[in-house]
Request: fold
Amino acid sequence: MNTKKLDWLILPILGLAIVLGSWHALAGKKVVTKDAQGEIVSEVRQGAIPALPNIVETWDSCKLYIMEPFAKRGEMDQGILRFTMYSLGLVAVGYVIALVVGVPIGFFLGLSPTFAKMFDPLIQILRPVSPLAWLPLGLVMFLEAGKEAGTLAALFTIAICSMWPTVLNTAVGVRAVPQDYLNVGRVLKLSRTKTLFKILIPATLPYMFTGFRLSLGIAWLVIVAAEMLTGRPGVGGFLWQEYNALIYEHIILSIIIIGLVGFVLDRLMSVVERRFKSAL
Amino acid sequence: MSAYLEISRLSKSYPTPKGPAIIVKDFDLKVKKGEFVSIIGHSGCGKSTVLMMVAGLNPITDGGIILAGKELDGPGPDRGMVFQSPSLLPWLTAIENVLVGVDQVFYTATHEERRLIAEYYLTVVGLGDSMDKKPAELSQGMRQRVGIARAFALKPKMLLLDEPFGMLDSLTRYELQQVLVDLWRKNQITALMVTHDVDEAIFLSDRIVCMTNGPAAEVGEIIEVKFPHPRDRKAIMEHPDYYKLREQLISFLEVRSHLRPSARETNNHIPPPNAESHPAPTKQGRTSAELANLPKSTIEA
Reply:
């Protein structure tokens, strides 16, 4: 009986333990052979996946980055949370661009059947295009910006990839505004602007926030690709640099941090979303 | 007394591949200033369509509507609407919902004056204590009270009610009918209400318009309710004329219900019981396309 109550705590820990255990079991381990004088003869890695660092190695190698999360030792050698902050900053700007562009497009799609017929097929085609495909195009487009080209291309990629859920959810929300609400506006002869701000936007907000949450998830997903290709300091850039430097432990650290941050962002957004929905 | 609201030859049809589907045909009605008129009929007969055309929310196919000497063209706040679902904006409180309209109509008034108007009407409908509640916190009956306050607060030329109490339980319905009729008397406002509740129509109305069933619904008969205002529900229910009126309305509705297309198809060997009140189609000069849309037995009759 009592165990049932703790299920919410025990079961996830059990799940985590299973995954960590399997990782450690599959990971490689350094085997050092010494001769009689204690001289090292050979150093080989053994295991199912020899190159994969195990838990102990990963912790040893990463603790500096975790224990001093905001340290700055060099351009690409900084505490993990400092990298995360850079990444979040870039995502924030790209995400805001996505919302500012995406919401009006969503409104036009929802309000005008002509507009929807014109652009809906195009949106359906552009939506599944990978960030890895957009980024080179961004780099080309902002070639003249010189040093800033990488940043601008990254922002462009984040914005264009994360915009679609906002666009589509806003459009659906606008179409779903009950005719009753619109009739209230028509009976009162509200102007177009007043109808927009007093009826359409508030009625669409719950849908818009669902779009905002999904968009934020994608924006964070894109950051890694963007930083990898542009070599910017950030979690994604760090990950790619450490891959090239053969410090595989740091790849694992980066993955964990990216996952955790994505999870926290999603939770925060769903709290905001629920606030908005319950306010109605 | 001349008519305040004059509906003449009002028609509504929708184009379909088989020719126009006629919902309402040549609906004529004159309503005096301060009169309460109900339109009664089966669901789907087009009574709501008529009301929506008066409201300007549904475009008129043919005919015209004159209110206070002016031909109506589109919706406007001179006609206060009470919808079947209260259709309050859920993100606004009760008073904010009333204020959306008040702000729009009395834009020259000060903020305090407008707030006073909204507060006054909400208090009159019995929501003095719940003005700052959101619709989700109000019962269905309370929401409809807000809907009534919102319509009256605009000081409209007339009131249009589309089955305003259709979604309420009967006790709440009685309460709200009283609220409505009190406000109506105090404001001496012309009202047009659509309902399918016979008792509601008798209690509230000066005249009851019975609509024939669609397609091509029109005015069947108009029944006057002569009980003087203010009415006491118990007293009029005990009045000998009450049951005559009720009988008259129900028999109208029941006889018409046998004429519904589905009923006609299943027993189309039986001639329609009241062919005389449903004039032969050819007399009305209907086109062959319209004839094709009519159920078989009507054409045979």
